[in-house]
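Run log, item B.
One chain of 352 residues. Sequence copied directly from the ordering sheet:
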Amino acid sequence: MANRKTQSGSTSKRTLEDLKLIALMTRTWIINMTHKAGSGHPGGSLSATDILTALYFNIMNLEPKNPKWEDRDRFVLSKGHAAPALYASLAQAGYFDLKELMTLRKLGSRLQGHPDMKRTPGIESSTGSEGQGLSNGIGMALAGRLDERPYHVYVILGDGEMDCGQVWEAAMSGAHFKVDNLTAIIDRNYYQLDGATKDIMSIEPLKSKWLRFGWNVIEINGHNMKNIITALREAKKVKSQPTVIIAKTVKGKGVSFMEHTADYHGKAPHNLEYLDALDKFMNRLKSRKLSLVKKQNIELLKKLLNITEQHLKSISDEAINTDARKYQKNIEEYLNRKKMLLRKIANMRKKS
């Protein structure tokens, strides 16, 4: 495993158990945040979660309490709609309080629907207009080279962004200038805004295209934490050309009804869906071997449980009744599920 530099200058080594727990907590935050907001982009956030976890908690050199540290590694979320996953990663890394996550997309919040570098600590580039992030990242990498800084730049792109001409202009410039202090990661979840990528605009053969553009290409399972970390470490060793990692992922990973569909690209879960998803995540969190993870991550879990409990209590029985009638579901089943979840969270908090 790679070591991550912290503000004090020491290193903090995260085990695979730590990283898997953080990724699971991030997915729970994504469901909490988008449900509370009533809007957002859960599908692409869930598919990028494992990659972001590896970057922020194992790979990148960062100082969360000093976000403008000159030698920090830079990260650009070119697929800016996946902001919930990025915000959850930033908060858990210590850039701002976890409570702020529940202000997603609210008027006056620093956590808008797409990242804003002028308002949110840890955001390097305001993104959301697709296709622009790689150009931004290459500019940062070239600046680092000119300034003789040691930092590395990471850019996550969506596969729907491959439709944008600016991505390929950036790909040409990255190879031409031999930008080896940048790694691009494509979140290849096979879906974009309103359908499958193969139906809207086929981007295959994707690997061959990037090879022809002069990039080193690595293909991985984007949900296998060990594979992600290995690929990111290998990418940093490559000299005289940039590397792109094609991470094969699942849209909506971790929430069964959101997986392999574009339906939740930009749609938040309603009350019943939230209860279903939260039930699954609580069961998975309960099954984690907490004795194998660091104390700091146990503290993150406690805060997640507290805030989740508060949000769950805010969902009225009347709101559950309304949705149960609307979607023709059993009212008592979901009222009982809410009560069961509150008991489960209370028990988990006592044991953690």
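Observations after the first pass:
- The first strand starts at residue 4 and ends at 5.
- The chain has twelve helices and nine strands.
Flagged for discussion on Thursday.
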